[in-house]
Amino acid sequence: MKVFENIVDLQNELFEVRKEGKQVGLVPTMGALHEGHASLIERSVKENAVTVVSVFLNPTQFNDKGDLDRYPRTLEADCKLIEACGAQYVFAPTVAEMYPMPDTRQFEFPPQSTVMEGKKRPGHFNGVCQVVSRLFYIVRPNRAYFGEKDWQQIAVVKRLVDYINADVEIVECPIIRDEDGLAKSSRNSLLAADERAIAPNIYRILKASTEWQNSLTIKETHSRVIAEINAIEGLEVEYFDIVDGNTLLAVNEWADSAYIVGCITVYCGKTPIRLIDHIKYKG
Ligand code: AMP
Q: Has this prediction a pTM greater than 0.85?
């Protein structure tokens, strides 16, 4: 496995790869890798002759500097995991290499980029689009792998691909959870033991809420999920939206859409750590 810091070195290598007719898979990450990332990398390794894993903590997608400062940085361990998954290349650039000058491009893809995370983290998806578009220009992958953990992000990235005419297939990979149901996340390592103990309640309650469809309206389901999570000391819902899976706009009746998803963000503990999750109700 080779690790590249420089764009031009990676591009020279990939030029040779493509000359041999080999297909390239890209797995964009911010590091602090876990089994969720590993599932994306393993899938790319299976489906492409060559896999590039980018490890880049992208500052332009953080609207909260504290969150960026706290974010775990574990490049050495990340490289071991990437190699064990069978990928050929790691791309781990510095901020100056990725952004030799400030990126002033503005990406907005309403409604997918403006609801939920888009509303709560202004600029977040703009930063995601800035870095993902750069990675696409640099790597020129045949396929790029994204996790359903960041469910809204996939919807936004698909809009980006159409917008910039990128010739890349977006491969959606299922969310990987711990045994107790907590969605695996790099931020989980920041949870204290007592916080980690209460965090699985988020998915437990979301899963239970899929059983309420026959007896409760969307509005009632919405209120009950929030009330049950907030009743647990140390958890506080930031938002819970029940939306159409394609437009990401709020749905008022279960019958109004064939594809309905509940998206949630919960603050956990004293710091607090922001955890996101989602549940499919229909479709
Ligand atoms: P991140 O490093 O958090 O930017 O994540 C990089 C990629 O890994 C994104 O496409 C995420 O959606 C995906 N990912 C992160 N956690 C998980 C998980 N628990 N299951 C599946 N994919 C994940």
A: yes
